[in-house]
Amino acid sequence: MLQDLHNNIQCQIAISPQKQTNSNTAFVSNIIDLANFGSCEFAILYGGITDANVTFTILLEDGDDSALSDHAAVDDAFLLGDEAGATPLFSDDDTCFKLGYIGPKRYVRLTITPSGNDAGDINIAALAILGHPRVKPQSTQAV
Fold first, then answer.
1. Cis peptide leading into 137, omega within 30 of 0?
2. Per CATH, is 6-133 categorized as 2.60.120.660?
3. Residue 99: how many CA atoms within 13 Å on its side-chain side?
4. Can you tell me the distance from the alpha carbon of 124 to that of 134, in angstroms, rounded to the nearest whole number?
5. Domain boundaries, the chain
6. 36-95 pLDDT tens trace
């Protein structure tokens, strides 16, 4: 029998689906509040990537200030997976990568920065899946 995941997670939009054309502007997520949760998994969705020489850098930051004025790159000890492993190649159209956080800070933010996107499109979205809630069941309502 399958286990109940539905009542034990909360989903939040980290990066709304968006398309970027001929630009190296960073995709910066919403700040995710981890209050009352013990973990966070980012599901990063890449749609079409049409520039053959684009590369990406992924950064996960954490902090205790709600505006992340105290932000710092997450120590690798608090990552499940690593940023390089969630980084696509230009040929990784229609793929999903994941990056997990189990650190002690209350707030996290994901940044995906393209480089060399001078002749094409990038389609990206990201979802934050918060797990190990202190209060169960979790609501199915939009957050």
1. yes
2. yes
3. 26
4. 31
5. 6-133
6. 999 999 999 999 999 888 999 999 999 999 999 999 999 999 999 999 989 888 888 899
